[in-house]
Amino acid sequence: MAWSTREIAELAGTSLRAVRHYHEVGLLEEPERRANGYKQYGVAHLVRVLRIKRLADLGFSLPQIAAMGDSDDHPAEALRTLDAELAATIERLQRVRVELGLILRQAAPTDLPPEIAPAATGAKLSDADRSLIVVLTRVLGPQGLRSYADLLRNLPGDPVADEFDDLPDDADEATRRDVAERMVPYIRRLRAEHPGLRTRHSDAPHSADFIEETVGKALVELYNSAQLDVLHRSEVLLQASAGSEDTAG
Q: Which residues form the HTH merR-type domain (predicted)?
C-alpha cells in the first residue's frame, strides 16, 4: 500500500503543509519515490504522522517530539513534564481570570497589579500621577504597594493638589512659591496618616538608591519644570520645619 502526500495528509487528518514541515524539521523520514518522482508513503509513515499529530494535540512542541525519537514507547517522563507544565499554565490562567473578573467588576485599570488597581480606580489621579504609580509598582515590594494602595483609597481632596496638577510650565515665581507653601501641610498630612510611606523601601526587591533614581527619572519625564520646582521647594520647607521642631524639642 502506498499513498501520495495528499492522501497521507487526509488519512492523518492534517494538512499537506504540516506533512512537508515534518520532513523539513526531521520528524518524518522522506519516503521512496515512484518512477514519476512522486513520493509514496507506507503504513509506517502514516503511523509516524499520526503519532506526531497526537503528541502535538496533547501540547508537545515539535522540538519536544523530536527529542523523543522515533520510538513508539510510552513517553512517561515527557508526559509527566508536560502535565506539570499544563498544571502551571492552568493555575496561571485561573489567576488571570480572577484578575479579569476584578477588572471588569470594578472597572479597574489594566496596567496596574491587583494589589493597587482597585484603590487607583477610585482615586482622582492626573495622567502623570497614574504613570508614576505604574513605575512604583515595578520597584516596590508588597509592603510598599500596600502603603500606596491605602493612600490612594483614602486620598483627601485639597484644592492645592488640583492647582499643582494644573500648574503650567511657565508659572511665575510667586505662583510657585505660593503653591509650594500650601503643599507643605497637605504633604505633611499624607505622611502622618500613612506612616508606611516612610518605610516603603523596606521589602523592595531593589536598593533604596535604585528606587530613588528610578522614581527621580520618572518625575522628570512626567511633570513639568514648574511642578518639579514646587515639589523641591515643598520638600525643602518640610525638612526645614522638621529641623525647627527637633531644635525646639
A: 2-71
For the segment 210-249, what is each residue's pLDDT rounded down to a tens digit?
Answer: 988 999 999 999 999 999 999 999 999 998 887 655 544 4
Three cell numbers at 98? 480572577
Q: Cell digits for 245?
A: 521642631
Looking at the structure, do residues 61 and 79 belong to the same domain, yes or no? no
Residues 202-207, mean pLDDT to the nearest whole number: 86
Instruction: Clarify whether residues 64 and 88 are in a common domain.
Output: no
CA 55 to each of CA 20, 65, 88, 96: distance values in angstroms, whole numbers, following the listed order: 17, 7, 19, 27
Which domain does 87 fall in, by range?
Answer: 74-106
Question: Which DSSP string corresponds to the chain?
Answer: --B-HHHHHHHHT--HHHHHHHHHTTSSPPPEE-TTS-EEB-HHHHHHHHHHHHHHHHT--HHHHHHH-S--S--HHHHHHHHHHHHHHHHHHHHHHHHHHHHHHHT--TTS-TTTHHHHHHS---HHHHHHHHHHHHH--HHHHHHHHHHHHTPPP-HHHHHHHH--TT--HHHHHHHHHHHHHHHHHHHHH-GGGGGTTTT-SS-HHHHHHHHHHHHHHHS-HHHHHHHHHHHHHHHHHHHHHHHH-
Do residues 227 and 151 share a domain? yes
CATH of the domain at 64: 1.10.1660.10
Count of domains in the chain? 3
Tell me: do 175 and 157 sit in the same domain. Answer: yes
